[in-house]
Write a structure and sequence with these properties.
This protein has 305 residues and is an alpha/beta fold. The protein has helices spanning 49-60, 76-86, 110-115, 134-141, 160-170, 183-192, 205-214, 257-265, 273-288, 294-304, and strands at residues 35-41, 64-70, 90-93, 107-108, 120-124, 127-131, 152-156, 175-180, 199-202, 217-220, 245-248, 268-270. The chain binds 2'-monophosphoadenosine-5'-diphosphate (ATR).
Length: 305
């Protein structure tokens, strides 16, 4: 049995550092029966997924291990052939592989099909299936907050992360306004959403101010404000009011300028750590049938950050 020794969630304290985030383990005993999970990405060196999944594996005492594997985009078909050939038990996909994986699996979930991206490969009755847990992971991160009662959302950005968030919101009947630097992308995404309450627009100051005033939930799905550009914000300060729920999918820094402004205005601010942890927990559940301890995974992520 693979034993992952050391307290889960102690990433960064008393663990080995081998460049990049340290794993929350001190020693791994692998056997012929150990189930192997992986994250494919390019780059993958800074992925926090190994830390959080191995922390959950250790906490549950499972005979499993989760490894980061660098896969160049051109090698993805061969790598997915390797998943089949070597019988990997489950895989996460990250940038820039999520979209290309759609065409390489035996079956696609509705979520993966509608957002056009796969972040999780899992086995079902001998078929290799592609799914995306990003949208549900985002929704879960609003649990216990007024965010799940939102009526109108302003979503900043129209890329891959935004697609997952917008579908998760629109499927629940929330009216979504998408603002993007490239407005055509926002309009295309709005047109693809279920229901007739979505629209896309440019991310111009007047448009943003109007849309923010009408929204109760604001979600930043752009990379604006991400380290090292911590002094940037995708939204002017005067757009944020006390009643807003402001989510930033960025988790580095943990408090972006957007979230600092939200805090200073008395609005509720949520960073991207919970979404990261929840999408991982949902993948883990698909693979093992067990909902992992999300607090253990979160401690591993925050320790590694
Ligand atoms: P992800 O998968 O993280 O969503 P993506 O698909 O590359 O990444 O999308 C990035 C999003 O951030 C896009 O909406 C992008 O706007 P464009 O569609 O106009 O490219 C937005 N974005 C990135 N850098 C930005 C910047 N400096 N200012 C405004 N928007 C930016």
């Amino acid at each position: 049995m693979a034993r992952l020794r050391g307290a889960a969630g102690r990433a960064g304290s008393g663990t080995k550092k081998m460049g990049g985030p340290s794993l929350p383990i001190e020693m791994v005993e692998l056997t012929g029966k150990t189930r192997v999970y992986a994250v494919f990405g390019c780059p993958v060196e800074h992925s926090l997924s190994p830390a959080m999944h191995n922390a959950a594996i250790a906490a549950l005492g499972l005979d499993c291990v989760y490894v980061p594997l660098r896969v160049e985009p051109a090698d993805l078909p061969a790598a997915i052939g390797g998943v089949r050939a070597m019988g990997l038990a489950g895989v996460n996909l990250t940038i820039p592989l999520k979209e290309a994986a759609v065409a390489l699996v035996d079956e696609l979930s509705d979520e993966a099909r509608e957002i056009g991206a796969v972040n999780t490969l899992f086995w079902k009755d001998g078929a290799l299936c592609g799914h995306s847990t990003d949208g549900e992971g985002f929704w879960m991160s609003l649990e216990g907050t007024p965010g799940q009662s939102a009526k109108r959302a302003l979503v900043l950005g129209a890329g891959g992360a935004s697609r997952a968030v917008c579908f998760a919101l629109a499927r629940r009947g929330i009216e979504v306004t998408i603002a993007n630097r490239t407005p055509e992308r926002a309009r295309e995404l709005a047109a693809a959403l279920p229901g007739s309450h979505a629209h896309g627009m440019p991310a111009e100051p007047e448009d943003l101010a109007r849309a923010a005033a009408a929204a109760d939930l604001i979600v930043n799905c752009t990379s604006v404000g991400m380290s090292p550009n911590d002094s940037e914000s995708p939204l002017a300060e005067n757009c944020i009011e006390r009643g807003h729920i402001v989510c930033d999918l960025i988790y580095n820094p943990r408090e972006t300028l957007l979230l600092r402004t939200a805090r200073e205005k008395g609005a509720l601010g949520l960073n991207g750590v919970d979404m990261l942890v929840n999408q991982g927990a949902l993948s883990f559940q698909l693979w093992t049938g067990i909902m992992p301890p999300v607090q253990v995974m979160k401690a591993a992520v925050t320790g590694a950050l």
